[in-house]
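ok here's Acyltransferase, seq below lol
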Amino acid sequence: MTPVATPIDLRPLTALRFFAALWVVVYLLWPNLAVDGMPALAAKGYLGVELFFVLSGFILSHVYLQAFGEQRFGYRGFLWARIARVYPLHLFTLVGVMALGLTATAAGMAIDSSVLSWKTLLPNLLMVHAWGFAGEAGWNHPSWSISAEWFAYLSFPLFAAAAWTLRRQPWVAVAAAALLLAVLHIGFERLAGYRLTEATFKWGALRIAPCFAYGCALYLAHRRGPVPRARLLALVAAGAMVVSAALLSWDGVVVLAGGLLILALAGLPAERPGVMGSSAAVYLGEISYAVYMLCAPWQMLAVNVMSRLIGAEDKKLPLLLWLGIILGLIVAAVLVHRLIERPARRVLRGWADERRSSVDQPSKQSETVLQHSDSIV
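and the structure came out like this:
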């Protein structure tokens, strides 16, 4: 597999992470907006998580697949880098939800019993609460997807081996991954009685598998050579995502179109990446993990406080206040990213740097990609 001339930092993909996170945020917060009903596009916001999963497979293949195929891949170093990326913020938000729940309980406020789900605390701490070990949702519920990501990280050598085997037949790999996605989605719904995209703490580990494989396969197509007319493909793929989501079509269509959008954005020329490669868009992408992980605790805090201030017992807020809560979430994400996420990541990676040998680590180029383009929700 001869690498094409691709930028180390896939800036448009970093920016895409923010829009995926924002889609999820709108979906979660829409019930707190004082309007009737939910538009179909907002109702499909949970698919922003699927977009993250596809991005994860694509980016991790971008960073590690060549080293894996050349037997330069260090599994321990890979897992430690993943822990440094996801765990500090996971732990911070879990403790934050715990503090909010205990404070509300002490103040005599009624909270959902699943918030302080002590029996699921250990699975949450071990990041296995989306593997069927939790039994119920609890704590920072969106973190189920981090548990699913952890499952994919542990399984990455299997995905990488399959991708490396098909490296000379990228479109065969893409077709196989798309078929896997269709089979799993259709089969799961028939067996479980609900869609795979509705699975969280029970079957989240299964939910990531076809998306992650799809991302790995799309990376093979990217490495084969830049897609022709990448900007046009990006517009068509984005339009297909919006239209299919707005029409409430099968979730798999949205996911497949999202993958093509990722492939197109990755193929944009480094010197002319467009608005998705701007510094502002890339920075929003860098804080997207914090936006996603803070959404539920911020909703608990901000919506309850604002509802009490304006006397909205149904927790339905006017549009301007609702938009203010989303803006406040982004500001909070900036602060947490700067004060918690980045410093903790540097500390954990610093510990590893003192002990690891060069054979256990990705190259300096790979580390740069991880810092700027790594997709994690």
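fwiw Residues 83 and 129 are 16 Å apart (CA to CA). kinda neat tbh
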